[in-house]
Amino acid sequence: xxxxxxxxxxxxxxxxxxxxxxxxxxxxxxxxxxxxxxxxxxxxxxxxxxxxxxxxxxxxxxxxxxxxxxxxxxxxxxxxxxxxxxxxxxxxxxxxxxxxxxxxxxxxxxxxxxxxxxxxxxxxxxxxxxxxxxxxxxxxxxxxxxxxxxxxxxxxxxxxxxxxxxxxxxxxxxxxxxxxxxxxxxxxxxxxxxxxxxxxxxxxxxxxxxxxxxxxxxxxxxxxxxxxxxxxxxxxxxxxxxxxxxxxxxxxxxxxxxxxxxxxxxxxxxxxxxxxxx
Length: 278
Ligand SMILES: [Zn+2]
Ligand SMILES: [Zn+2]
Known about the structure:
Blueprint: E1 7-12, E2 33-39, E3 42-46, H1 51-60, E4 68-73, H2 79-82, E5 96-102, H3 110-117, E6 133-138, E7 144-146, E8 149-155, E9 163-169, E10 172-177, H4 185-195, E11 200-204, H5 209-216, H6 224-234, E12 238-242, H7 250-263, E13 267-269, E14 275-277
Helix pairs in contact: 4-6
The structure holds zinc ion (2 copies).
Protein backbone atom coordinates (compact mmCIF):
# COMPACT_ATOMS: atom_id res chain seq x y z
CA UNK A 1 0.00 0.00 0.00
CA UNK A 2 1.17 3.47 -0.77
CA UNK A 3 1.41 5.96 2.12
CA UNK A 4 1.27 9.72 1.93
CA UNK A 5 2.76 11.20 -1.19
CA UNK A 6 4.40 14.62 -0.98
CA UNK A 7 5.13 17.08 -3.74
CA UNK A 8 8.22 19.21 -3.93
CA UNK A 9 7.28 22.39 -5.77
CA UNK A 10 9.63 24.83 -7.50
CA UNK A 11 8.89 28.49 -6.67
CA UNK A 12 12.19 29.76 -8.06
CA UNK A 13 14.65 28.06 -10.42
CA UNK A 14 16.95 30.92 -11.48
CA UNK A 15 20.46 31.36 -10.15
CA UNK A 16 22.34 34.54 -9.25
CA UNK A 17 19.68 37.23 -9.76
CA UNK A 18 15.96 37.41 -10.62
CA UNK A 19 15.24 37.74 -14.35
CA UNK A 20 11.82 39.34 -15.01
CA UNK A 21 12.30 39.31 -18.79
CA UNK A 22 9.84 38.14 -21.43
CA UNK A 23 12.29 35.67 -22.96
CA UNK A 24 12.86 33.93 -19.60
CA UNK A 25 9.36 33.58 -18.20
CA UNK A 26 8.44 30.15 -19.54
CA UNK A 27 10.94 28.63 -17.08
CA UNK A 28 10.74 31.51 -14.64
CA UNK A 29 12.72 34.43 -13.31
CA UNK A 30 12.57 33.93 -9.53
CA UNK A 31 15.61 32.80 -7.60
CA UNK A 32 15.91 29.55 -5.69
CA UNK A 33 13.05 28.27 -3.53
CA UNK A 34 11.28 24.90 -3.26
CA UNK A 35 8.69 23.66 -0.80
CA UNK A 36 6.75 20.57 0.23
CA UNK A 37 3.58 20.66 2.34
CA UNK A 38 3.85 18.09 5.15
CA UNK A 39 0.30 18.93 6.22
CA UNK A 40 -2.02 21.90 5.63
CA UNK A 41 -0.12 23.75 8.37
CA UNK A 42 3.43 22.48 8.17
CA UNK A 43 5.94 23.10 5.39
CA UNK A 44 9.43 22.10 4.48
CA UNK A 45 11.27 24.73 2.45
CA UNK A 46 14.58 24.62 0.59
CA UNK A 47 16.20 28.06 0.23
CA UNK A 48 14.68 31.53 0.41
CA UNK A 49 15.27 33.11 -3.01
CA UNK A 50 12.68 35.49 -4.46
CA UNK A 51 10.39 32.50 -5.18
CA UNK A 52 9.68 32.28 -1.43
CA UNK A 53 7.51 35.39 -1.70
CA UNK A 54 5.12 33.49 -4.01
CA UNK A 55 4.74 30.66 -1.49
CA UNK A 56 3.94 33.21 1.24
CA UNK A 57 1.39 34.91 -1.01
CA UNK A 58 -0.23 31.59 -1.92
CA UNK A 59 -0.62 30.73 1.79
CA UNK A 60 -2.05 34.17 2.58
CA UNK A 61 -4.83 33.58 0.02
CA UNK A 62 -6.00 30.40 1.74
CA UNK A 63 -9.24 30.55 3.66
CA UNK A 64 -8.01 28.55 6.63
CA UNK A 65 -5.86 30.61 8.98
CA UNK A 66 -4.18 29.34 12.11
CA UNK A 67 -0.78 28.35 13.50
CA UNK A 68 1.66 27.27 10.81
CA UNK A 69 5.10 25.76 11.08
CA UNK A 70 7.92 26.15 8.56
CA UNK A 71 11.15 24.17 8.46
CA UNK A 72 13.52 26.10 6.21
CA UNK A 73 16.82 24.60 5.04
CA UNK A 74 19.36 27.01 3.58
CA UNK A 75 21.99 25.73 1.15
CA UNK A 76 24.02 28.90 1.88
CA UNK A 77 23.72 32.66 2.30
CA UNK A 78 24.36 34.14 -1.16
CA UNK A 79 21.66 36.67 -2.07
CA UNK A 80 19.86 34.46 -4.60
CA UNK A 81 19.17 31.97 -1.77
CA UNK A 82 18.05 34.37 0.99
CA UNK A 83 16.68 37.51 -0.68
CA UNK A 84 13.05 36.32 -0.49
CA UNK A 85 13.07 35.89 3.29
CA UNK A 86 12.08 39.47 4.27
CA UNK A 87 9.16 39.29 1.78
CA UNK A 88 7.74 36.03 3.18
CA UNK A 89 4.35 36.98 4.67
CA UNK A 90 4.44 34.36 7.48
CA UNK A 91 7.34 36.32 9.06
CA UNK A 92 4.79 38.97 10.03
CA UNK A 93 2.21 36.55 11.42
CA UNK A 94 2.51 35.82 15.17
CA UNK A 95 0.91 32.42 14.51
CA UNK A 96 3.93 31.29 12.47
CA UNK A 97 6.84 29.29 13.80
CA UNK A 98 9.80 29.43 11.44
CA UNK A 99 12.82 27.21 12.02
CA UNK A 100 15.81 28.21 9.89
CA UNK A 101 18.52 25.59 9.38
CA UNK A 102 21.94 26.64 8.12
CA UNK A 103 25.66 26.27 8.68
CA UNK A 104 28.10 28.40 10.69
CA UNK A 105 29.80 30.84 8.35
CA UNK A 106 32.93 32.84 9.19
CA UNK A 107 32.40 32.08 12.88
CA UNK A 108 28.78 33.30 12.77
CA UNK A 109 25.72 31.17 13.45
CA UNK A 110 22.79 31.04 11.00
CA UNK A 111 20.96 33.44 13.37
CA UNK A 112 23.80 35.99 13.36
CA UNK A 113 24.28 35.78 9.58
CA UNK A 114 20.60 36.42 8.83
CA UNK A 115 20.02 39.04 11.55
CA UNK A 116 22.97 41.05 10.21
CA UNK A 117 21.44 40.96 6.73
CA UNK A 118 17.78 41.68 7.46
CA UNK A 119 18.18 44.91 9.40
CA UNK A 120 18.41 48.64 8.56
CA UNK A 121 19.85 50.11 6.40
CA UNK A 122 19.49 47.04 4.12
CA UNK A 123 15.82 46.48 5.04
CA UNK A 124 13.46 48.58 7.19
CA UNK A 125 12.54 45.67 9.49
CA UNK A 126 14.76 43.85 11.96
CA UNK A 127 14.59 40.08 11.58
CA UNK A 128 15.26 39.89 15.32
CA UNK A 129 11.94 41.66 16.01
CA UNK A 130 9.49 40.04 13.57
CA UNK A 131 6.15 38.78 14.97
CA UNK A 132 6.76 35.14 13.96
CA UNK A 133 8.37 32.78 16.45
CA UNK A 134 11.85 32.32 14.98
CA UNK A 135 14.09 29.34 15.69
CA UNK A 136 17.60 28.76 14.41
CA UNK A 137 19.18 25.37 13.97
CA UNK A 138 22.79 24.60 13.16
CA UNK A 139 22.83 21.94 10.43
CA UNK A 140 25.45 19.92 12.35
CA UNK A 141 22.55 18.12 13.99
CA UNK A 142 21.20 16.56 10.76
CA UNK A 143 19.83 14.03 9.75
CA UNK A 144 16.56 14.89 11.41
CA UNK A 145 13.00 13.68 10.91
CA UNK A 146 10.22 16.10 9.89
CA UNK A 147 6.98 14.17 9.90
CA UNK A 148 7.92 11.04 7.99
CA UNK A 149 10.59 12.83 5.93
CA UNK A 150 14.23 12.49 6.89
CA UNK A 151 16.52 15.39 5.98
CA UNK A 152 20.29 15.06 5.73
CA UNK A 153 23.00 17.30 4.31
CA UNK A 154 26.39 17.21 2.61
CA UNK A 155 28.91 20.03 2.02
CA UNK A 156 29.45 21.00 -1.64
CA UNK A 157 32.21 22.96 -3.39
CA UNK A 158 31.26 26.64 -3.58
CA UNK A 159 32.78 29.99 -2.49
CA UNK A 160 31.78 30.57 1.18
CA UNK A 161 30.40 27.02 1.32
CA UNK A 162 27.12 25.39 0.34
CA UNK A 163 25.10 22.38 1.52
CA UNK A 164 23.27 19.75 -0.46
CA UNK A 165 20.10 18.41 1.18
CA UNK A 166 18.57 14.98 0.75
CA UNK A 167 14.91 14.34 1.53
CA UNK A 168 13.96 10.72 2.18
CA UNK A 169 10.42 9.47 2.47
CA UNK A 170 10.09 5.68 2.69
CA UNK A 171 12.15 4.43 -0.23
CA UNK A 172 11.80 7.72 -2.14
CA UNK A 173 14.69 10.19 -2.25
CA UNK A 174 15.28 13.64 -3.63
CA UNK A 175 18.71 15.27 -3.60
CA UNK A 176 18.92 19.05 -3.88
CA UNK A 177 22.45 19.97 -4.98
CA UNK A 178 22.54 23.60 -6.04
CA UNK A 179 25.57 25.89 -6.09
CA UNK A 180 28.24 23.28 -6.59
CA UNK A 181 31.31 23.24 -8.81
CA UNK A 182 32.36 19.82 -10.05
CA UNK A 183 36.04 18.89 -10.31
CA UNK A 184 37.11 18.18 -6.75
CA UNK A 185 37.35 14.40 -6.64
CA UNK A 186 36.50 13.90 -2.97
CA UNK A 187 33.43 16.18 -3.09
CA UNK A 188 32.21 14.73 -6.40
CA UNK A 189 32.49 11.19 -5.03
CA UNK A 190 30.73 12.15 -1.81
CA UNK A 191 27.87 13.70 -3.82
CA UNK A 192 27.58 10.57 -5.95
CA UNK A 193 27.32 8.43 -2.79
CA UNK A 194 24.83 10.87 -1.27
CA UNK A 195 22.68 10.69 -4.44
CA UNK A 196 22.92 6.90 -4.96
CA UNK A 197 19.66 5.59 -6.40
CA UNK A 198 17.79 8.88 -5.82
CA UNK A 199 14.47 9.36 -7.61
CA UNK A 200 15.49 12.92 -8.42
CA UNK A 201 18.78 14.77 -8.42
CA UNK A 202 18.30 18.55 -8.67
CA UNK A 203 21.68 19.79 -9.83
CA UNK A 204 23.44 23.12 -10.53
CA UNK A 205 23.57 23.39 -14.34
CA UNK A 206 24.39 27.09 -14.50
CA UNK A 207 26.81 26.88 -17.42
CA UNK A 208 27.04 25.14 -20.73
CA UNK A 209 30.41 23.36 -20.90
CA UNK A 210 31.95 25.95 -23.30
CA UNK A 211 31.11 28.87 -20.98
CA UNK A 212 32.54 27.01 -18.02
CA UNK A 213 35.80 25.98 -19.66
CA UNK A 214 36.57 29.36 -21.19
CA UNK A 215 35.58 31.78 -18.45
CA UNK A 216 33.98 30.41 -15.33
CA UNK A 217 36.28 27.92 -13.63
CA UNK A 218 36.40 28.59 -9.89
CA UNK A 219 33.09 30.51 -9.84
CA UNK A 220 31.40 27.75 -7.89
CA UNK A 221 28.95 26.43 -10.45
CA UNK A 222 28.66 23.45 -12.72
CA UNK A 223 27.37 22.39 -16.15
CA UNK A 224 24.62 20.20 -17.58
CA UNK A 225 27.32 17.78 -18.67
CA UNK A 226 28.73 17.37 -15.15
CA UNK A 227 25.10 16.98 -14.00
CA UNK A 228 24.60 14.10 -16.44
CA UNK A 229 27.85 12.42 -15.36
CA UNK A 230 26.95 12.72 -11.68
CA UNK A 231 23.41 11.42 -12.23
CA UNK A 232 24.67 8.49 -14.28
CA UNK A 233 27.39 7.55 -11.74
CA UNK A 234 24.84 7.67 -8.91
CA UNK A 235 22.19 5.68 -10.80
CA UNK A 236 19.70 8.52 -10.33
CA UNK A 237 16.26 7.88 -11.84
CA UNK A 238 15.61 11.47 -13.01
CA UNK A 239 18.03 14.36 -13.32
CA UNK A 240 16.59 17.87 -12.91
CA UNK A 241 18.76 20.68 -14.31
CA UNK A 242 18.55 23.69 -12.01
CA UNK A 243 19.93 27.15 -11.02
CA UNK A 244 19.57 28.55 -14.54
CA UNK A 245 22.00 31.22 -15.64
CA UNK A 246 20.38 34.70 -15.63
CA UNK A 247 21.43 35.23 -19.27
CA UNK A 248 20.00 31.94 -20.53
CA UNK A 249 16.68 32.43 -22.32
CA UNK A 250 13.84 29.90 -22.51
CA UNK A 251 15.21 28.92 -25.90
CA UNK A 252 18.71 28.38 -24.49
CA UNK A 253 17.27 26.21 -21.71
CA UNK A 254 15.35 24.11 -24.22
CA UNK A 255 18.53 23.59 -26.20
CA UNK A 256 20.38 22.59 -22.99
CA UNK A 257 17.61 20.09 -22.23
CA UNK A 258 17.75 18.69 -25.76
CA UNK A 259 21.50 18.02 -25.70
CA UNK A 260 21.41 16.73 -22.12
CA UNK A 261 18.68 14.24 -23.08
CA UNK A 262 20.89 12.91 -25.86
CA UNK A 263 23.32 11.88 -23.10
CA UNK A 264 20.74 10.96 -20.45
CA UNK A 265 17.12 10.60 -21.62
CA UNK A 266 15.75 10.78 -18.04
CA UNK A 267 16.59 14.48 -17.75
CA UNK A 268 14.19 17.32 -16.94
CA UNK A 269 14.77 21.03 -16.56
CA UNK A 270 13.31 22.91 -13.60
CA UNK A 271 10.63 25.51 -14.18
CA UNK A 272 8.48 27.54 -11.80
CA UNK A 273 5.38 25.66 -10.77
CA UNK A 274 6.83 22.20 -11.53
CA UNK A 275 6.22 19.55 -8.86
CA UNK A 276 8.15 16.38 -8.08
CA UNK A 277 6.15 13.65 -6.31
CA UNK A 278 7.92 11.69 -3.56
ZN1 LIG B 1 23.03 30.53 -6.31
ZN1 LIG C 1 26.04 30.68 -4.30
